[in-house]
Each structure stands twice: as C-alpha cells, then as structure tokens.
Specification:
eight-stranded antiparallel sheet; about 30% helix; 35 strands; alpha+beta; globular; Glycosyltransferase
C-alpha cells in the first residue's frame, strides 16, 4: 500500500470515529510529510524537558518541538514553495542559526532556547529578496501534534487569540496527548518594515482554526487587480519574530489558567527589546490644564448658577461622571499641592443638581438636558463610576462627598439585585427596563461587577457594615467563569482586579487573589504589547496601551489614566505573594502609561495628522485637554474628539508620580510607584521600588523654582551607584533597578 493510500485510510478511520477536523491543504501536507518522514533532519537539540528537531521539508523549514510520549508542535520557520539549500551557519549554547538560499533570496533563521524557569523558544526569520517581490500568500506557522506527529490527531482548546491590533498572542492547551499549556507571542514591533512595505497591518493576524494556528502574515488583498507593493530587492526584512512559552500541565480552572497566562506572557515580555521612555513634565501640564478648565469657554457651561464641565470641547451636555471625575482629580491635586485649588469649590457646588431625591440616585444628566437626549438612559458603568470617585474623596476626609455617596448607595444595590449582578449595556434608570442589552459580541457590560464590588468595598470601609462586604463578594462571584471574555472596558476591568485584591486582604480568601488574575489576564489580552510604525502612528507611542473596549480600534485617555489609578490601588493591597510576572506587567503598564499618554495632547502631535472631522466638538491645539483616541494602525488621531472629561489625566499622573521632598531643592519623579519612603537625615532619603525583577525604572530629580540642584547620589542596597545625567541644571536623571531599596543623598544646594 502506498503512503498516500495509507494516509487516506487513516483519514477514513478518523471520520468513522467522529474525529474529523476541518483541514486546509497546509495541514494535510504537513500530516503527509511527517507520516512518510519526508525531508532532511538538519539539527536536533533539547531545552528543558523538550526536544527540538529542525526539518528541511519540500516547501518549508520546520521546527518540531516534542515532549517524549506527549505530543508536540510543528512550527513553520520558512515557507518557500521552491527548491532551497539549507545550511547550519552557527550554533552555540542556547542558540542555532541557519541560512536558506533559493531563487527567492536568502532566509536567515535564528533560534534561541531557554528553560530555567519556563521552557521557551524564540524563532526569528529575516529575509533578503533577490528581486522586487510581491507576497500574495503566506500560511500560518503553528500546528499541534499528537504522539505520532499527526496534526489531525491532537485535541485541545484555544483560550485566547489576538483581538484586532492588540498583542499578537495565542494561548492554548493540548489535552490529548497531554502536552500542556502553550503561549505563542509574535513580536509585531520587529515586523513593522514588512507591514510598511506591503501596505498591510497585522489585524487579527495571530489565531487560527484548530489545528492550523499561529501567525498568518498579512498580505495585500487579492482581486482582479491586486495592489502592487513589493519587498525591495537586497533589503533585509524581518518576516517573523515569534516566542513560544510552554508549561507541562494544563490548568485545572480559570484562575490558574489566568495566572499561567500572565506568567507565560511575562516570560515572553522579558525577551523583548523594550522601547525607551522619556521624562514628561506632568506638573507643568497639570498647571496648564487647570488654567484652561478655569478660563477656556470651550471647557465649561453655566447652569443653575453653577459651573459645569463640557465632556468635549464646547460640546455635549454636562454629566455626573464627568463632573465628579474632574472634581476628584482636582481634589487629589490640591492635597498633593498642600492646599485646595479654587476650581474644587466651583465644581462641587453644583453636584446636587444631578441628584434625584425621588430615586435617591445620581442621574447622568442635569434636569435641563436637551430633548435630543434620553434623560432616563444610563450606561451601567455610569451609575457606579461617580460613586467610586465620591468614595475616594470621602475616604480622604471629605464629608460632603461621603454624605452624597451614602444617600445614593441603596439605589446602586437595588440596580445590582435587579440585574442579578449581570448588567446590560444601557437601561432606563426609572424602572430598569433594558434599552440596549448587549454589544456586538452578544455580551453586556461584563466587568461592571468589578467596579460595583470596588464601590461596595469603599462603602464597607466608610461604614464597617458587613452587608457591603457581602455585596462585593456576590458581584465578584457572579463574574466567575467568564475567562477571557471578562473585559468590556479596560478601566472597569482594572478596578475589578483591585476589588479582588482588596477582598483578599479583608477576607484572607485566596480565591479572590486568584480571581484578580482573571481580570488582569483579560486586561492584558486587550493590550498592544508592540510599538506600531504604521502610518501616523510613527508620531506617537502605543506600546502597552490597552484598547478602551473589548472590540474598540483605539486606545483612549480616560481608560488609560483610570486604569493607572486602579493599578496603584491594586499594588497597594498586594503583597510578597503576588505572582512576580503580574507585579511586573502591572508596573510596566503604569510606567509606559506615563510616557505614552503625553501623545494624547494635540500640541504634542503634528497638526497635519489630526482628524479634521470630529464626532464630538472640535480640536483646539492651544487647549491642554487630551484627545480621546489614538490608533495602532495610524489612523488620524482625535476622530472621536478632544476630551475635557479626560482633563484629570495630567493631574492624576502628576500627583502619583511626582514626590515632594520637604526642605529639598527638588521634586522626585519616578515612573514606578514608590512602596517605601523614609527620611533618614536632613539630606538623605531611602525609598523602595517593587517593580519587575529584571526591569528598570526612571528616577528623576527636578529642580524647584528659584533653587539650584545640588550634587545628588543614588546607591542601591548592594552598593551599586548608577550614574546621573544632567539636563541644563534643571533635572538629573537616573536609571535604576525597578525592584529594591535605593539610598539617596544630596549636598547643600547653596541657595
């Protein structure tokens, strides 16, 4: 019997057993090649408990990864479809380099393996075309295998795949045979030149249909007259830079699956060449923002004799979420400055007009809202977010915020009970009738329960009433089982993680600490862990930004800084038992937010790239209010509008990242949260950072007005002394380990 006949016989047997999977020609070709042992074995290697084999087959170069007796993976390193020569160029411990020559050009393939903590393999493919080359098609690159190297025999489940232009991540497990848990990460940053050359983008490029998974390189749309955007002859271009991280055992439940996802994502993250960050003067930006909030007519409107904030520049009716969000930021700013800002009283004076004494609830709009709005409509999260900020101020001693918060709390609970802790998108506040039940993905506001739990925990802290604690537990319990479908809106998901960690600290129930990982896994699944170089995106940064909604095409400033605030609370409540990769990813998100968020401000962008058609209001580059939207595919920023309601961003970033040192001629900026602070002398200070073990933090000393910078020394607990870099005697910058104790000393500034 021929091998082809045997292959047909195997397929028929699988069909009789009800095991047939839909398969493309690529899967069938791989199945055939491995069944007849076609091709030449170029190199065998091991990493951890895994074995690797490089196989030069007829049309592809494969890397076969196996766990003896437990199946494996076939990873396509190159697809040529023409004869080629393959030779081993170099090999050293943990690394293999190969060269493939063909009529197409030269492929250079590098493999780097590691397995100290988690087994991982990085595969980088670079290509130099011999002539200008169009790319009409390239296949996916990853196929699970059973114990007999059959891609149609392995059974498993994909937990998460790339969404839109978020990270090129795929997370899956192979259950039969029991190969284990796999995270595949495609470093899209390295492939920017390919996307620019071919006029493509990696939208949803990593995913697939079992058993054909992995990265599908984007190619120009094919039609009767397809686009002609070739790779240039003689220019090296990266086609792929993939990372595989493997664990031996599939997780038993969603909490452990989420923890492993974050752990494995952290392992991949540590292998990346991370973008540099820049110092941003958020204090100066905050001062400008406050001046514009007070003086710009586009920022405010008068009603009932009070000062209210427009959500967008000279556009949209005032609403309670906007008013209280900006009030809370101004309140925190005043505490940071040491005295209340004059704007605080003006914003606070009109709050009661949002209160409905009949419902005993905060309405979204003022009573005089126009007929073009449904005055009774409320998004589910809009009921609770103003309460969150009222409670934040109340817990810092503001009695008027506490009073209003407590007057509204029962209605918040009534709404939660009505919807059984599973909220729709929008409903009528007067009778809870649903206006919009679900989004396009058939889900409601899945993470509102996390925000609600946070509000209930704040109520518990204010009153010590166990009823509120029970409400928080009920809301978090109701969200269990959503896995990677938990995220609806990024900042709400972040607050859900914070609520879980707070619950753990109060109850000592480890399930809630573990459940925080489910929220965080969903959050980081929706992050862009790559730096785009597409179209207008070359003018701003998107690395580690979160798309604002689960299906949104853009990052938004409000979700950015509100998640930053939530993560500060999360890390405050975490402790030494926090998963190290989680600590690192959360700290790194906040670090990059402080840099990336600068580009939401229109004066930080070239005027010519700003959207000229805006959904809300207009863009005024002279105002220090951020744009709502930045796009990883390089669309014109600001299509949604310029957010007055996002004006709190600069105040929040400044208050949480700049630190006043009493009597010193400088402020300290740090892009990590300072976990410990002790003044050890007149001119000495000890601080503790608690970021990622392998990460670095920026520590900047910024001269106070009319003072001179002294000589500053920074030393680690181990005695290392990083060198500072001066900037025009106005600032001294240090790059320090993101974890550990630092000792800071300075001389008299002589002023």
């Amino acid at each position: 019997m021929t091998e082809i006949a045997k292959s047909k016989q195997r397929a028929a047997r699988h069909e009789r057993l009800g095991q047939t999977l839909p398969a493309s020609g690529q899967v069938i070709a791989l199945q055939y090649a491995l069944s007849v042992k076609a091709g030449r074995s170029v190199k065998r290697f091991t990493f951890g408990e895994l074995t690797g084999e490089i196989l030069a087959a007829e049309d592809s170069l494969w890397v076969l990864i196996r766990r003896p007796g437990a199946g494996g993976l076939a990873w396509r390193a190159a697809y040529l479809a023409v004869p080629y020569e393959c030779r081993l160029e170099a090999t050293k411990k943990g690394q293999i380099k190969l060269r493939l020559d063909s009529v197409l050009g030269k492929h250079v393939i590098t493999l780097a393996a590691g397995g100290d903590a988690l087994e991982h393999l990085r595969l980088t493919v670079r290509f130099v075309p011999l002539s200008p080359m169009l790319i009409p098609f390239l296949p996916r690159d990853l196929y699970p295998l059973d114990a007999k190297d059959n891609p149609l025999g392995a059974r498993g489940h994909v937990e998460a795949a790339q969404r839109g232009l978020n990270s090129g991540v795929l997370y899956f497990r192979i259950d039969d045979p029991m190969f284990g848990n796999v995270l595949y990460f495609q470093n899209l940053t390295a492939i920017n030149d390919y996307y620019r050359a071919t006029k493509t983008s990696p939208d949803g490029a990593v995913g697939g249909l079992w058993p054909e998974l992995g990265y599908l390189p984007p190619t120009p749309a094919q039609s009767g007259t397809p686009p002609s955007h070739p790779l240039r002859a003689g220019e090296e271009i990266t086609l792929s830079d993939g990372i595989l991280v493997v664990r031996h055992h599939a997780p038993p439940h969603e909490r452990e699956s989420a923890r492993q996802f974050l752990q494995m994502l952290g392992e991949a993250y540590k292998l990346l060449d991370l973008p540099r960050t820049e110092y941003r003067d958020w204090v100066e930006r905050a001062d400008r923002t406050l001046a514009d909030l007070e003086n710009a007519p586009e920022a405010k409107v008068q009603a009932y004799g009070h000062h209210y904030v427009h959500p967008y520049t000279a556009s949209e009716y005032p609403d309670s979420m906007v008013q209280i969000s900006i009030l809370a930021a101004v309140f925190d700013w005043g505490r940071w400055r040491g005295q209340p800002h004059s704007l605080e009283a003006a914003l606070r004076a009109g709050l009661r007009r949002f209160y409905d004494p009949k419902l005993k609830a905060l309405r979204r709009y003022l009573p005089n809202v126009g007929k073009d709005k449904n005055a009774n409509a409320v998004d589910s999260w809009y009921l609770y977010h103003p309460m969150l900020n009222l409670a934040r101020m109340a817990l810092k001693g503001d009695n008027s915020s506490k009073q209003l918060f407590m007057e509204c709390i029962e209605f918040c609970i009534e709404a939660a009970h009505h919807f059984s802790y599973r909220w729709p998108i929008q409903y009528d506040i007067t009778d809870f009738s649903v206006i919009t039940a679900t989004a396009n993905d058939e889900r409601g506001q899945t993470d509102v329960g996390g925000l609600y739990a946070q509000v209930m925990l704040q109520a518990h802290e204010l009153t010590d009433d166990p009823r509120f604690l029970n409400e928080a537990r009920a809301a978090i319990d109701a969200a269990m089982g959503m896995r990677f479908n938990l995220n609806y809106q990024a900042n709400l998901t972040a607050w859900g993680a914070a609520a879980c960690m707070r619950l753990y600290r109060i109850t000592n129930d480890i399930v809630y600490a573990e459940q925080s990982y489910v929220y965080l896994a969903s959050f980081f699944h929706n992050c862009e862990i790559w730096e785009s170089g597409l179209e207008h995106a070359v003018h701003y940064k998107n690395f580690l930004g979160a798309t604002c909604l689960q299906d949104a095409p853009y990052m938004a400033i409000y979700e950015c800084f509100d998640a930053f605030t939530a993560f500060a609370a999360y890390l405050d409540d975490s402790g030494p038992d926090l998963e190290p990769a989680v600590k690192m990813l959360v700290a790194e998100y906040c670090k990059y937010a402080l840099d990336r968020a600068w580009y939401y401000y229109p004066d930080a962008l070239p005027k010519e790239i700003l959207a000229t058609q805006n959904r809300n209001g207009h863009i005024d580059r002279s105002l220090s209010f951020p744009l709502e939207d930045l796009y990883p595919d390089g669309q014109a920023p600001g299509q949604v509008g310029q957010e007055v309601y996002g004006a709190g961003a600069a105040l929040v970033f400044a208050a949480l990242s700049f630190h006043v040192v009493e009597g010193a001629p400088f402020k300290i900026f740090c892009d990590h949260f300072i976990r410990g602070w002790e003044r050890t002398g007149d001119r000495s200070l000890s601080i503790v950072l608690d970021g990622g073990e392998t990460c670095m933090a920026a520590l900047n000393f910024v001269r106070e007005e009319r003072r001179r910078l002294p000589r500053i020394k920074v030393a680690t607990a181990g005695g290392d002394m990083p060198r500072g870099h001066s900037h025009d005697n106005a600032r001294v910058d240090f790059n320090v380990p993101a974890q550990g104790r630092l000792i800071i000393t300075w001389s008299d500034d002589g002023s």
